Amino acid sequence: MTSSWQDPYIRNDEEQALAAWAEQLASRFATRAERHDREGSFPFENFAELREAGYLKITVPKRYGGDELSLYNLVQLQERLAYGDGSTALAVGWHIGQVLHFRSSGKWQEPLFAELCRSIVSDGKMINTFASEAASGSPSRGGRPETIAVRTDGGWRITGRKTFSTLSPILDRFVVTAYVPDENCPGEFLVERTERVSIVETWDTLGMRATGSHDVVLDEVFVGEDRRIAGKAEDDGGGWLLHIPACYIGIARAARDYALEFARTYRPNTLSEPISSLPTVRHTIGEMEVELRTARALLYEAAERWDRERSRRPSLRPELGLAKYASVNSAIRIVDLAMRIVGGGSLSRRSPLERYYRDVRAGLHNPPMDNVVLQLLTDSALGEAVATTPPSA
What we know:
Elements: H1 13-39, H2 44-53, H3 71-84, H4 86-105, H5 110-123, E1 129-130, E2 148-152, E3 155-165, E4 173-180, E5 185-192, E6 197-200, E7 214-224, H6 243-265, H7 279-308, H8 317-342, H9 352-361, H10 370-382
Parallel strand pairs: 1-4
Antiparallel strand pairs: 2-3, 3-7, 4-5, 6-7
Helix pairs in contact: 1-3, 3-4, 3-6, 4-6, 6-7, 6-8, 6-9, 7-8, 8-9, 8-10
């Protein structure tokens, strides 16, 4: 990390120490990011370091040996991790975010959740939920899974194919959504990786190339009765999904800092001072600051409210969605402005800006998508109580 910016969203010494910890990891990941992006390879060494550092257990409850960090802390850490490597941050974000979700919602029955948490703490295991499919699209759109769970002695046999399966190269267990014909409804099942599970390496994308989001194929995989996720879930508003905008803001900050350093130091032979003295460049820097500071304010306010207002979490969904919408769209704008400052050199594969440009666009396709957020905000506005006296024309 090269930024010396005093972060207004660090509230105490403990958070300062957490931030420094994540920045050290990010600095090492940054040295490998270009190679893994170019190769489209999974950064196993980054995840070995995350495991060794204890990062994988940051959202595990303290009663199981975890750190039980807040959503606000998760956002702080993920933003910094993405500053070094967006792909690694987004991928690990699904793990730590889902553990936070399981913790806050009670979605998993306690014995199964306890087993998961202990395996994370003692063995560095990870988890993700594979729900997307080619035919049904994103699960946030409400499509019925084509993956089928058929009842058999002692459990189910599950057959299907999942897309966008982030972390698939490293997981030995994962959750899948599947349609249960006998019940005419979908269910969630914890699947162990066996010879009946295969990974098809389909992940060859424009951005976020090192997340390992390949297809996962299940061929009559047996899942025991106690491996169906059947806890009494509490609606937590989806706050855990803020790991996504935190990641894209981290990438945007890296692009902004790169452009600032370039502006401070680059002096063409037509000028007596660096280009940071030019009014047009200074104006562009100001535009970047508006985007970054506005998005971060929304992001951290949403996280803090989710932590503080537990009983109101379901009603915070529009604000949480707004934080994601603003962060991703601002990140795209910030990287674009940074490239305008740096000029044509930013298009080079040797420039990190070229990778940042591709990576931030992936945020448009992470949930909740823009049109979903806009609908949430529209419904919220239309649902407000009508004033007894309408405003005068």
